[in-house]
Amino acid sequence: MNPFWSQTARQLSPYVPGEQPRIADLVKLNTNESPFGPSPRALEAMQAAAADTLRLYPDPEATELREVLAAHHGVKPEQVFVGNGSDEVIAHAFAALLNQPRPLLYPDVTYSFYPVWAQLFGIACETVPLDGDMHVRVEDYRREAGAIVIANPNAPTGVALPRAEIARLLADHPDIPVLIDEAYVDFGGESAVPLVADHPNLLVVQTMSKSRGLAGLRVGYAIGDAGLIEALRRVKDSFNSYPLGRIAQAGATASVRDDAYFRETCGRIVAGREAMTRGLSRLGFAVLPSHANFVFAAHPARGGLELAAALRERAVLVRHFNRPRTAPYLRITVGTEDDTARLIAALEAILA
Ligand SMILES: *Cc1c(COP(=O)(O)O)cnc(C)c1O
């Protein structure tokens, strides 16, 4: 251990992101990026923002971006918070809202960044097991809790809860903060944003990384009661007042304004998911019902670790999570039609 590390640095066990390797002709289906680029209008806006004005600090409140997001979601600008990727927004929410005297609850199988933030901020947690079908059962959250975080659709399963189930969860927990992480909601899930009006304890977090093809820009946002948003702003302004640069604000704003491109590309990814599901089912995989831009699939005869390694040898990258409940599965991002064809051909060869 390096002698100059603080106690904080020593005690961390950081999140491990999916690889970004440099392999020629790779089929990259491991980090849930979009196979389609950002909106051409977003690219134009970013090119225009790459100008002399970059010598000036950006708007610390990202006012225009928050206004277009508010209009898009039917809320007020003071109900919108933006950050450098939704990872940063969620991290601020852990500090500002989810750090309570009683434990934070989340599913046993979910986004593996949640325990990392809990550790960073010293938050006590309890995991709530998914049921046998890998679904979240909201009645299992009827226990003593300081806060709840649920990804919906969940990751890495892709399984979604209907809005009515989130409403039931909120009815059970009117007095604690509830964060719904909607990183994948644009691929057919039901957003909890309409519930924000009646629930001052609900924070909904979304990202431009997956459905808007802007993972490289780093823009995420939260929608909630203005009181919750104020807590996020207090943390942000105690950490980094300018999380989004001028180029990011311009690109994200133009992306939200280009609704036609957004709907078209999301629709193509949903169609690609159905095709991938059919192809995997034909090869004998059990595929969980996905509302995300990835599928979670297990083969009855071959383990996930083995299949992921064999695919990697054929330059097809997928994600495997080597924990007891997830070990049989592969998490496979929906790419282009050509990506799916190469994935299926590689699996056919491996299983033969
Ligand atoms: C991808 C992802 C995020 C983070 O996305 P950003 O790129 O930081 O906006 C958050 N939550 C879940 C469940 C994700 O899969």
Explain the overall architecture.
This protein has 2 domains: 14-37 and 260-351, Aspartate Aminotransferase, domain 1 (Alpha-Beta Complex), CATH 3.90.1150.10; 40-257, Aspartate Aminotransferase, domain 2, CATH 3.40.640.10. 37% of the residues lie in helices and 14% in strands. It has helices at residues 7-11, 40-49, 63-73, 85-98, 114-121, 163-172, 226-236, 246-257, 259-282, 304-313, 337-351, and strands at residues 27-28, 80-83, 104-107, 125-128, 147-151, 178-181, 202-207, 220-224, 286-287, 294-298, 316-317, 329-333. The strands form 3 sheets. A 7-stranded mixed beta sheet has the order 2-8-7-6-5-3-4, sandwiched between helices. The longest helix has 24 residues, at 259-282. It is globular and about 55 Å long. Pyridoxal-5'-phosphate is lined by residues 32, 85-87, 111, 151, 155, 181, 183, 207, 209, 215, 220.
- At CATH level 2, the architecture of the largest domain is 3-Layer(aba) Sandwich
Write down the overall geometry.
Answer: globular
Percent helix range: 25-40%
Q: Name the strands of the widest sheet in spatial order.
A: 2-8-7-6-5-3-4
* Beta-strand content: 5-15%
Question: Would you tell me the overall average pLDDT?
Answer: 97
Q: What is the top-level CATH class of the largest domain?
A: Alpha Beta
